[in-house]
Each structure stands twice: as structure tokens, then as C-alpha cells.
Amino acid sequence: MTAPIRIPVGLGDRSYDVLVGPGVRHLLPEILAASLPSPPGRVAVVTGEGIGTDVAVGDAVGEVGNFIIPGGERSKTLATVEELCRALARFGLTRADAVVAVGGGLVTDVAGFAAAVYHRGVPVVFVSTTLLGQIDAAIGGKTGVNLPEGKNLVGAFWQPSLVLCDTEVLATLPAAEYRSGLGEMAKYHFLGSAGSEPIDAAAMAALPLPERIARCVRLKAEIVASDERESGRRMLLNYGHTLAHALEIAGGFGLRHGEAVAVGLVYAAEVALRLGRIDGDRVAEHRQVVSVYGLSASLPEGIEAGELIDLFGRDKKAVGELTLVLDGPRGPEPVRGVDRVVLAEALEAIR
Ligand SMILES: NC(=O)c1ccc[n+]([C@@H]2O[C@H](COP(=O)([O-])OP(=O)(O)OC[C@H]3O[C@@H](n4cnc5c(N)ncnc54)[C@H](O)[C@@H]3O)[C@@H](O)[C@H]2O)c1
Fold first, then answer.
1. pTM of the full predicted structure?
2. Are 101 and 108 in contact (CB under 8 A)?
3. How many C-beta atoms surround the C-beta of residue 39 within 10 A?
4. Residue 343 host element (H or E)
5. Who's near 89: CB < 8 A, 6+ residues apart?
6. What's the rounded Cα separation, in Å, for the pair 194 and 59?
């Protein structure tokens, strides 16, 4: 196995490493043996239906339990968390033990939240198996589930102890799920900062996949380390998400989350153009980046502008007035109170 790329997430006594590379899941036994208390306790391996990634925890662990949560966003509920916590209790998991969550954002959000609340918090390791999970969901400690009233409305900040991003397991990922990850990857192109290398889409395409993933992880790690609880800068990670969430609430239109984010990035650029924050070249750059990743920048057919704009306000991140993350001379930043006419005109520009 080639040496993994190691990216530290610097959060004081809650700091951890993200390891990226082909086969990194096979490092888990060694890492667990080195980090679990002696004698090693129990490990609960939680995965999702149909994921099928093999993960061994090694002989140092006293007892291993396997738990499967149902697939699909509809099972991302408090009921699933209760079922899982009850199963962990029957297994006898204690705070001296650990959870290993193996899956995409759905599994890491649910198992991460269960780990945050079970016995008031047990250590959790994420073995992330989707591109979106590896560059986004598994990093930064946001965990949670949906309510009928909205997505991710109940949750906790609970940092993992380690994240393994094994690029080998992405070989089995369905094409639409891979594209979804590329939408989030496109977003990072616009979020470069002084502390991290710029992410240029064309240059990125020439890099090996582990390095591409690592660049995104570095940027997310740096943003999370500077604003763990999303009181400011972490909001930038929502770039492109206002329209994306509205499209998802309006029915998805067959778009996966990251595909909707790609449309949302170009939409945000069109709004910023109309507010005089950026010029036409920068809008063209947004379109170019999205197209380098092979993603569409157009609204799906058959959706009414008024309905989408009404949905913008239902985003849980909207505090008081509608806030959009918009590009500008200093890069993307939150902007309040954008006029409805501008929002509608920009929607017409992406039809
Ligand atoms: N916590 C965060 O910061 C954060 C950030 C972004 C998204 N999310 C959440 O992540 C979830 C979406 O995550 P996702 O896009 O990873 O989707 P997902 O976890 O739902 O997985 C998508 C599909 O791929 C399958 N799959 C996963 N790994 C596979 C593999 N290696 N091979 C074959 N099939 C595999 C799954 O079974 C599922 O059917 C949403 O619930 C979203 O809210 C959380």
C-alpha cells in the first residue's frame, strides 16, 4: 500500500487525522490496537444496507458487533437512531469502547449522532465510502438526522477520532453518487483561502484521485478548525446550497445533492453578477468549473421560479432575512436581504 496522505483536523484536544489513499481501511486494526484502552473493549461496526465495504477491526479488539441501518434518506430518522442505540445497549457498548461507522454521509451522520448521544458520547471512527462523504460529510463533526419538518434538524457536533477515506472503495460507487461528490468538489474551487492551496478545477482533473480528495479535505479541515460551530466562516461551505436545498425540497428532480449544488453554484454566480459583486468572466468561470466536472449548470425542466424562491426561506441556515453565500471581490461571503426580483432574474439565467 502506498503511504496514505495524512491531514490533521486541528481542534485542540479533539483533533484527529484524516487518512486518504487506496487501501487505508486496512490500517484500522493497527490504529485501533494502538488507541483502544488495554485490554481492548468492544467495537460496534455500523454500516448501511447495500454498502458491502469489508472492514476488519483486528484481533486486538475484545468483541466486535455488526449493525446495519436501513438505506435511503427516509431512514435518516430519530427512530433509526433509537433502534441503533438499543442494539448498542444490548451489545453492551460502553464509553470505553468505540463505534466504527462504514458508509457514506447517511451512515456517518446517523452513526455519528448515535455515538454523540449514546452514554452521552462514545468515540467514533468514520470509514467513509462515498466521494461526497470523503470530501465533506465525514469531516468536521456535524452529525444528525431529519425530521418530517426538514433535513438535519436534530443533531450534534461530535468529532470523530479518525477518518479513513479509502479511495479503493469508490470503485463500486454508482455513477450518480460519484457525480454527486463531484458537485461538492466543484464548490471547493471557489473557497480557496490564504491557509490552503487553491483548488483549480482544470489542474485538479490531472491529479490522482487521492490527491484531489486530500486537497478538498485540507480546505474543509482548515475551515472547520477556524470555526467548528459555524458561527461565521464555516457558513461558506454552504456555497451553492440555497438553490440546491430548494431543488431537493421541491422534489429532487432526480438530482443527487451534489448535482443540485453544481446548479446552485452557477445560480449564486448569476445572483452575484446582478448585484455587481462579480463580473461576467467570473460567472463564466463558474460555468467552466461545473462543466469540467461533467455536471449540468441548468435548472431542471418544469419548475416554477416563485416556488423555488419561497423555498429559499425554509433553509434552516436562513437566520431572519434570507442569507445567501455570494462571491465577491473578497471571495464568497454571506449576504443578507437579496431582492426577490434579482433572485428571479438569476433563475431565468440558468434555465
Ligand atoms: N455531516 C455533514 O457535514 C454532511 C455534509 C454533507 C452531506 N451530509 C449528509 O450526507 C448524506 C448523503 O451522503 P452521501 O451522498 O454519501 O450518500 P449516502 O450515504 O446516502 O450513499 C449513497 C448511496 O451509495 C451507496 N454506497 C455508499 N458507499 C458505497 C460504495 N462504496 N459502493 C457502492 N455503493 C455505496 C449507499 O448504500 C447509498 O445507496 C445526506 O444525508 C446529507 O445530509 C452530511
1. 0.95
2. yes
3. 8
4. helix 340-349
5. 118
6. 44
Out of 55, 102, 129, give the residue to mutate to test ligand 1, the one with the largest number of ligand atoms within 8 Å of its CB: 129
Is the CB of residue 335 less than 8 Å from the CB of residue 275? yes
Handedness of CA 344, 349, 350, 351 (dihedral sign): positive
C-alpha cell at 37: 484502552
Render pLDDT for 251-301 as a digit per residue (tens, 0 to 9): 766 889 999 999 999 999 999 999 999 999 999 999 999 999 999 999 998
CA of 44 to the centre of ligand 1 (A): 20
Residues marked as catalytic:
120, 142, 184, 220, 230, 234, 238, 241, 245, 257
Q: What's the Cα-to-Cα distance from 96 to each of 41, 65, 120, 121, rounded to whole Å?
A: 7, 15, 12, 10
Residue nearest to atom 42 of ligand 1 (CA): 105
CA-proximal residue: ligand 1, atom 21 (nearest): 104
Give the burial class of 119: count Cβ atoms within 10 A of its Cβ; 0-12 exposed, 13-18 middle, 19 or more buried. Answer: middle
- The predicted-structure confidence for 304-330, as pLDDT tens digits, reads as follows 999 999 999 776 555 467 889 999 999
Among 24, 47, 51, 228, name the best residue to mutate to test ligand 1's pocket (greatest count of ligand atoms within 8 A of Cβ).
51
Q: Could you tell me the sign of the dihedral formed by the alpha carbons of 71, 77, 78, 79, in that order?
A: negative
Residue 185 main-chain phi, psi, to 5 deg: -65, -40
Scanning the structure block, which residue is given the C-alpha cell 490522482?
Answer: 208
Nearest CA to ligand 1 atom 19: 104
Is 258 close to ligand 1, i.e. is its CB under 6 Å away? no
Beta partners for residue 5, in sequence order: 20
Whether residue 72 has its Cβ less than 6 Å from ligand 1: no
> Closest residue (by CA) to atom 34 of ligand 1?
173
